[in-house]
Amino acid sequence: MHPTSPRVLTRRSLGAIGLAALATRAHAADAPLQIAQVIPLSGERALIGDDWRNGVEMAVQDINAGGGILGRMVQVSTYDTQSSAAGLRGSLQRALDGDPYALLGPLSAADTLASLPMVRERRILQITGSTMVSTAGAPFLFLASVPEAARMTKLVLWMRAALPAITRIGVLWTPAEPGRASRDAFVRAAQPVGLAIAGDLPVPTTAAELPGEIAKLLRAAPHAVFLAAPGRDAARLLIELRRQAPELPIFGEAILVANRTLEKAGAAAVGVRASVALAAAAPPLAAFHDRFQARFKQPASSAAIEGHMAVAMVKAATDRLGRADPRGLADALRGQHITTAEEPALLLDTTWNAAGEPDRVSFLAEVTAPGQVAWQILPPLQAA
Description:
By secondary structure, the chain is an alpha/beta fold.
């Protein structure tokens, strides 16, 4: 009989196999936790992806230096979406084929929505960098940052409390995303608190049309204007608004106080106020910004902060669960309030609701002089 036949297996050999299996399981229990991230590192969104990756890298190094997650080191595998739909499909499939403990990304709303069916089948925690997606019907999807709707709600609550004379808002927006989504979120938030929409116009497609369209908006006699436009349009809209209505208050999204907008708009940006989810220059995040800048020789963007927070979310969920169970992470994080005392890498105290959306402080930025921005903290909605 051949010596490898099952019939000649002895109690001793079975015991040896059992010990080997136990050793294999023990090794697996001590093996690094493998996290995958699916982000753009080439193409038009590469800068955002690179910032996110740097934030992830910094968090992983800090967490591993502190002993890892439940004593296990963290390793991250990165897959480039190439800023394209085809690149997303390929990178997502490769990431999921590696059976990751959790998935970070994608970073845009369109890519996140496209990824949901594949991720849902794996039943693993997914943390997106987009604030424009709904987590409804996606039980494993969580947002790294405060969603657009919540930030617009906080903005209008601040406006009603701080500037009660403003009751009529003109809205100027771009039909393309993210302009339309920001416009929709602001309008939905404004009307229930008594802010009437006085004029609601998409941005003209040609520069020649812009002065006439803004004049039309101003004839509706708004007390202020909410501006929702991408970076390429924000500065020119600010300049024309200031030319026609120099004293009119202007509110908008974070892009209005981005460095490139401030550089192009110059004095036209002074007085602008913007709702910003995460700002490295704001006091609660200044220490993180300094460490990030020292390491990567560049300022920390919101994408870098989100990437750092995403890794912290995985650690916090695992710690709450008490074991490394990828199928249990989402439920372990849902509805939880986690402080930076519990998880320093989270950077800001955060509460996640049942839908996987975070509630934490955000920021109101005000341009006080050309290129200079002052920051004010907007409290979590639960505290508003």
